[in-house]
Amino acid sequence: MLLLTIRTDKPEAELGLYNGQTQQAYETWPAHRRLSGDIHRKIEQLLQTQQRVMEDLDGIVCFAGPGSFTGLRIGLSVANAAAYALDVPVIATTGDEWITQGVARLQAGEYDPLALPHYGAEAHITVPRGSVTNQNQRQR
């Protein structure tokens, strides 16, 4: 069972390639603000190190958080899109043993309908200018 692992919750991103619980390849790089531009190329390079292509994947395990709002959205979006395109299962897990847990769930035939983020707190989203909420706050 060939699995891709993705972790993008912090400035240093991580990708792994596993055959079951056995690590075949692993890469970390300082993605920071270049994550969305680098992640697809990095996945392709990781697969090439093992003479593999995306179509060889049997599943995707990704770190769900908590962590960077934008980083998690990018990594989980890539995981969900790849899982859908390849028709393979996706698992989102948390904690120090996220890879082990994710691989075990996939081997047990479990998967998530979508890999969803766990931010660890409510997202701090700015209210758009001109919105009713923003106008009411100014009148106070």
Structural features, described:
With about 140 residues, this protein is of the alpha/beta class. The chain has one domain (about 1-140): 2-Layer Sandwich (Nucleotidyltransferase, domain 5), CATH 3.30.420. It has four helices and five strands; from the N terminus they run E-E-E-H-E-H-E-H-H. The chain has helices at about 35-50, 70-85, 100-105, 130-140, and strands at about 1-5, 10-20, 20-30, 60-65, 90-95. The protein has a five-stranded mixed β-sheet, with helices on both faces. Helix 1 (about 35-50) crosses helix 2. The protein starts with a strand and ends with a helix. The relative contact order is 0.18. The mean pLDDT is about 90.
The average pLDDT score comes to 90
Q: What is the strand arrangement across the widest sheet?
A: 3-2-1-4-5
The assembly state of the depicted protein chains is single chain
CATH architecture: 2-Layer Sandwich
Tally of individual helices: 4
Number of domains: 1
**How many strands, which pairing sense, and closed or not: the largest β-sheet?**
5 strands, mixed
Q: So what's the overall shape? A: globular
CATH class: Alpha Beta
Quote the CATH topology.
Nucleotidyltransferase, domain 5
> Radius of gyration from the CA trace?
17 Å
